User: What shape does this take?
Amino acid sequence: MAESGRTELWSGRRGDDSERMPEITLAAGLSLRGLTKSYGPVRAVAGIDLDIVAGETVALLGPNGAGKSTTIDVLLGLARPDAGAVTVFGRTPEEAVRAGLVGAMLQSGGLISEVTVRELLVLAASLYPAPMPVDEVLERADLTELADRRTTKLSGGQTQRVRFALALVPDPELLVLDEPTAAMDVETRRRFWASMRQLAAAGRTVLFATHYLDEADEYADRIVLMAEGRVVADGPATAIKAVVGGRTIRATLPGVPDGVLAALPGVGAVERHGDAVRLTCTDSDLALRALLAGYPDARDLEVGGADLEDAFVALTSPATGVSA
Amino acid sequence: MNATYLRTEVRRTLRAPRYFVFVIGMPVGLFLLFSSLYGSGDQDGIAAKAWLMVSMSVFGAMGAAVSIGGRIAGERQAGWTRQLRLTPMPGRMYVASKAITALAVAVPALALVYAVGAIVEGVRLPAARWAEAAGWSLLALAPFVALGIWLGHRLTVDVLGPLSGALFTALGILGGVWFPIDQLPSAMQGVAKALPSYWLAQAGREPLAGSWIGWHGVAVLAIWTAVFAVLGARAYRRDTARA
Assistant: This one.
């Protein structure tokens, strides 16, 4: 079954796509162009351009209020952008949803009462053209044992797993997860990501929002860093981690120009408040040695771990913008 | 329309504790109580027990119809309707399935009161009259279904709970569902005849005497249905607008 506009990866797994919706080209991936969206005076998204290749696992990383959820709402067709264009596998978000290509786990989104977990999933499955078998959904979401429990008798983490299961029901090509692990304990989180890995390995496109750098680093191929409604960095997880996840050196060091410090080996960015400088490092060991060798009068030295919030602030100031 | 979806909706509604209390328990209890108090003699040319039976059955059915409002409001609040927007199901199907569910769960409510009437209270009617009474009662529920859909999209659960209880009771009393309106002052009788609850009750009662509510009654019910449907459609559009 060789369809045009489709990569090999897809044609094997879902041969029935062509009958269902021939116009959809999975190879087109996702595209967001010039997206802006305000809620009243609040500019939630201030111009985003983003392309996601089919099969990629991408993390949207950013602090609260960065515009991650708004971007996701627009991508899912739940919110209409003020300007810009969005396509999902070559179609509008609504069309992609109607074709059963999109599964999503939103931040808010309760379950209905008076049903068991299995009944809820059977109900959801009845709405899609080619759903994943309910038993498989239960297994992947680690819910087999809870299948006959009422939705009102679940813990927060269990509810979260049911919401993940709802995202799987359409057997989607694109999985969108908005802070999926928020209410999960450590063990649930681990199993959740193991399941996600399997799904991604089968060729699905995965986009998840998080404000944990570790989560983004560990599970995404690519990290899109957002702050104040913009993409401030976008690249492979390792590159982004080097920028925002490196260690920082703080020191009191009067009279040395920032440019000179930035040129030291292992230093990524420099920030100064009076005599106090903060060096964001890609290699803090190297940077520290170079700093002490070159400027023995540096005082109050302090080497610290990654501070994501600080990194976001640094990245949003135009002088220190990063392109990885 | 999707059978699995509808079946689950009906099952969910039947499982809700509210359903048992307001749609099944209260009408049956009130019927037995009123029957023991006022069950002798005739009313409007019908045996009083039969009159009370039909009155209480439509009272329960009305509860079933209006209570979909609370369910819609709850599901909106929980974010479930938003989740449904991520499925291929069109939003109007959600509303349509709620309406059908309301009618479906009204059937056992009617049937149970009828059964109590036939078995406990000894109401005897030709088979065709039972069927006509039930059929007309369901048709006349239309304005209440529309009312539930409107309120469910317009109000929050916190407001809707007490409001629908009050509304439901007021419509019952003012519309002569609980007591014959000929016991009311004539001005009140005029009000009653403009209410959908009066015509709902009459729609169930008239067939007992081999009659029907006539075009006037049908028109009043149709107008209320149209008004609530327009308000409901507006509230629905506002609620689901993609901001």
Observations:
- The mean pLDDT of chain B is 91.
- The two ends of chain B are 28 Å apart (CA to CA).
- Chain B touches chain A at residues 2-5, 8, 11-13, 15-16, 74-75, 77-80, 82-89, 242-243 (CB under 8 Å).
